[in-house]
Write a structure and sequence with these properties.
9 helices, eight-stranded parallel β-sheet
Length: about 260
């Protein structure tokens, strides 16, 4: 019934609990999940989840928070292309830009993030697989690079802006480029009325739901470890905003997931 379009089940908070998590998902009618890669080093674990369970899929990518160093290597285009063609890998990412923690550096110092993002876009376009876009305090550059690389035109890969927390103007720009918008448990937070207003604006055929677990558990579990079993709370909030039933929202967002990742 429900599809969690973004989770991190390989993370240490969740992986040891996988049997219980899957049981909780079944009880909550969460029938499918997309497991997201954030480094090349963790990709084998993420991919194995998709190989082991027929209701999980995987992506490959390196999160913009992780600068190359002793623990994480910089992904090459060839690596992304090779891993992106493996069975049950349906997307490229998590990729994008994040200027939130500059730690004394300037935006100009984030050139490595921007070039990594371009490499992910190249891989997605060559493989014709959608991207999972992360953007934080960097929406102008995120949109600009997507346009620069030809997204929104013929041959574009498209994808989803995940865990959306930006303005309606950013949502409009993403939609104009052909992207989907995914909302997380943040949508249920008391102080998130501006985000709920944005969610009300996004067309039904471009909506996805996610947990981003183990992070961002929705109300009434805010502050606790999140799991895919909690994605119905996001659907419930979206359904209220769209004046439809939770069942309808589950059906619509699952159909959108199919159209983006499995068609």
């Amino acid at each position: 019934m429900f599809t969690d379009s973004h989770c991190h089940l390989n993370f240490p908070e969740l992986r040891p609990l996988l049997t219980d998590i899957r049981a909780d998902m079944a009880a909550a009618q969460v029938t499918r999940a997309l497991c997201i890669s954030t480094t090349l080093e963790e990709f084998p674990q993420v991919h194995q989840l998709a190989l082991d369970f027929d209701n999980f899929w995987a992506t490959v990518g390196v999160h913009p928070d992780y600068e190359a160093g002793p623990e994480q290597r910089e992904p090459t285009l060839d690596e992304l292309l090779t891993m992106g063609q493996l069975p049950r890998v349906v997307g490229i990412g998590e990729t994008g830009l994040d200027y939130y923690r500059l730690e004394g550096r300037s935006v100009a110092d984030m050139a490595w993030q921007r070039e990594r993002f371009r490499n992910h876009i190249r891989a997605a376009q060559q493989l014709q697989k959608p991207m999972i876009i992360h953007t934080r305090s960097a929406s102008d550059d995120t949109i600009a690079i997507l346009k620069e690389m030809g997204e929104g035109a013929s041959g574009a890969a498209g994808g989803v802006f995940h865990c959306f927390t930006e303005t309606e103007a950013v949502a409009r720009a993403a939609l104009d480029l052909g992207f989907y918008i995914s909302f997380s448990g943040i949508l249920t937070f008391k102080n998130a009325q501006d985000l709920r207003d944005v969610a009300s604006f996004v067309p039904m055929d471009r909506l996805l739901i996610e947990t981003d677990s183990p992070f961002l558990a929705p109300a009434p579990y805010r502050g606790k470890t999140n799991t895919p079993a909690y994605v119905p709370y996001v659907a419930k909030q979206l359904a209220a905003l769209k004046n439809c039933s939770v069942e309808t929202m589950a059906e619509v967002t699952s159909r959108n997931f199919d159209a983006l990742f499995l068609s």
